[in-house]
Structures are given as structure tokens and as C-alpha cells.
Amino acid sequence: MPRLGREREAVRLRLLVVRDKGKRVGRNPKTGVEVAIAPRRVMVFKPSNVLKAHVTGGLAEIEDDE
Fold this sequence. Notes:
This protein is an alpha+beta fold. 38% of the residues lie in helices and 36% in strands. The relative contact order is 0.20.
């Protein structure tokens, strides 16, 4: 049985954003030949303000405000 409280906490700690990456030119590291890399969508992790505060030691201040 999952812990709903922990899941809710995890939601407050991060934000996942979909970002479009454009077409670009890469290089084969072994041969040095240029290769076209097609555009694509990627997931980007963005830490929430709560997580940033926790890492820097300011979590107690945020919890007191709630």
C-alpha cells in the first residue's frame, strides 16, 4: 500500500516540465563526422522552492508559514 503522505510531499519537492529541443548538429566522437540530431521533446527536472529551501537549510521557515 503506497504512503499517500509521502507522495504528496514528493509532489511539493519537484516540477517536471516538457521542453522542446530544436534540431542541432552533433559529432561522432570516434570519427569526428558531423551528424544531424532531430528535434525532440525532453523532460526537465526543476526543483521547487521547498526543495531548494530544504537543501539550503531553510525548510523550518517555510513549514512555519503554512
